Known about the structure:
This protein has 215 residues and is mostly helical. The chain has a domain of 62 residues: Ankyrin repeat-containing domain (Serine Threonine Protein Phosphatase 5, Tetratricopeptide repeat), CATH 1.25.40. Helix content is 51%, strand content 0%. α5 packs parallel to α7 and α9 runs parallel beside α11. The termini are far apart. It comes from Anaeromyces robustus.
Amino acid sequence: MRACSCGNYEMVQYLVEHGANIHHCNDYGYQAIMFACNNNQNTKILEYLIEHGADINCRSKDRMSGLLIACDNEQLEIVKCLIKHGADINCRDIKGKTGLMKSLIKNNFEISKYLIENGANLRNYDIHGKSILDYAFECNNDKIDDYLISHNLIFPNQDNYIIRGLLTVCNNNNFKMTQYLVEHGANINITDCNGRTALMNACKNVNIKIAKLLI
């Protein structure tokens, strides 16, 4: 495990060739392959472990997987390697977060784009009921917004989670996304658990441009 974490390919190879159990877990349920997923420089080690039977979808006690670790650590090449070899793109950790959610939390456009293009489910929710789009809206990232809009991946008049989305983008002063949601049927009068509307958020931020759009 330490050899994998340190990126020592020769040591990994030596240990496997001399009978090391690649399926061995530490006290937290992490296997060697998972330690190899924390750095793009470990791609060669990752490929080697997979070739020798490592479980690409093994899970730790907190339900982490190699893919989730790679997304957490923003390691695009590891993500690509794992997906190429059949990793579960929609696996979730103990809190229900998927790799796509984790890449959005990190505001990582390239990994988010790659996961979406390779079949990540945009309708997943975490254990708190937050959707993929909730995480995307919280990013306030123009590249992510443009990608979602240009690929028609947002459906304001169909999905309940857009309700929170409108409140979020208004609170983030995101005029472009606010305009898109309003023009595609988002309910501008919906309130959050505290009774606040999107217009209230805009006024709180003294954002006249968004306020005019909502009136």
